[in-house]
Amino acid sequence: FEAKTSGSDDLKAIISAISTLVEEATFVATAEGITFRGMDPSHVALIDISWPNSAFEKYECDSDIKFGVRIDEFSKLIKRADKKDSIEISISEQNMLLVTVGKNKKYKMRLIESSATDTPLPKIPYDSKITLSSSRFDKILGDVQVVSDYLTIHTSDSKADFSGKGDSGEVVIDLEKDIDEIGEISSKEDSIGTYSLEYLNPVVKAVGTTAGQITCEFSSAKPLRIEFKVANIGRIHFYLAPRVES
Amino acid sequence: LIRQKTIADFF
């Protein structure tokens, strides 16, 4: 198994997103590419990533392998790469991850026993969909966070608003149809869902500017799925379970 | 009462 990225931004974004949920991550490499799927310890959020072989400068994988890494250790190595530096990873016979950063930095990192079990994806319909720039979404989360720990998303016909309510007050942000920043709002059914900013904020910050656009899909009292559109990466899906009244 | 659901509630 050997994979070489062109540039380091995509790998940094992926590792940063994963680091918001788990301390140890198991990746699966197949001939098709590299995948990761995992939940945070309390099972409130799930990240599902698929990174196709075509996105790499060089990619070889003769047989399927799983490899586990401590995310903070891996992250430290990858941060040593400049934006344009390629990162090459392979696995040694001594069960070490070989990480070549740029032209001349060759790291070896101990792999960990992978305890990964196959996590399914939640089976849910998505009644509503909002596409907007990730920078706009990041600002909205900041606007809500000053009064609340939770974001409520509401769609009605083809309108949407984000809101938050806390002890000190509340906020409503109407999404006007701004062509530059709001790509699309659609709803098959009016939907309302409330989600924790404790999970949302870090992952949106982590993928940050690497994703131009994001798509939020949800239904009333169902998990939110955010798709980050990162040019070379097949899929970065972030699922977040709702808070519901009972 | 507001409750935080888990992803597993929707498998």
Structural class category of chain A: alpha+beta
- What is the strand tally of chain A? 19
What is the overall pLDDT average of chain A?
Answer: 93
If helices are DSSP runs of H or I spanning 4 or more residues, what is the number of helices of chain A?
Answer: 4
> Looking at the structure, what is the overall shape of chain A?
elongated
Termini of chain A, distance in Å? 49 Å
- Element-level helix/strand string of chain A: EHEEEEEHEEEEHEEEEEHEEEE
Q: What is the percentage of strand-forming residues of chain A?
A: 35-45%
Q: Please tell me how large the radius of gyration of chain B is.
A: 8 Å
Class by alpha and beta content of chain B: mainly beta
State the distance separating the first and last CA atoms of chain B: 23 Å
Element layout with pairings:
The complex is a heterodimer of chains A (246) and B (11).
Chain A: E1 2-4, H1 9-19, E2 24-30, E3 33-39, E4 45-52, E5 58-60, E6 65-70, H2 71-78, E7 87-91, E8 96-101, E9 105-110, E10 128-133, H3 134-145, E11 150-156, E12 159-165, E13 170-174, E14 182-187, E15 191-196, H4 197-207, E16 213-218, E17 224-229, E18 235-240, E19 243-245
Antiparallel strand pairs in A: 1-5, 1-7, 2-3, 2-6, 3-4, 4-18, 7-8, 8-9, 10-14, 10-16, 11-12, 11-15, 12-13, 16-17, 17-18
Helix pairs in contact in A: 1-2, 1-4, 3-4
Chain B: E1 2-4
Can you characterise this structure?
The complex is a heterodimer of chains A (246) and B (11). Chain A is an alpha+beta fold. Chain A contains 4 helices and 19 strands. Chain A has a 9-stranded antiparallel β-sheet with strand order 6-2-3-4-18-17-16-10-14. In chain A, helix 1 runs antiparallel to helix 4. With 11 residues, chain B is mostly beta strands. Helices cover 0% and strands 27% of the residues of chain B. Chain B contains no helices and 1 strand. The mean pLDDT of chain B is 95. Strand 19 of chain A pairs antiparallel with strand 1 of chain B.
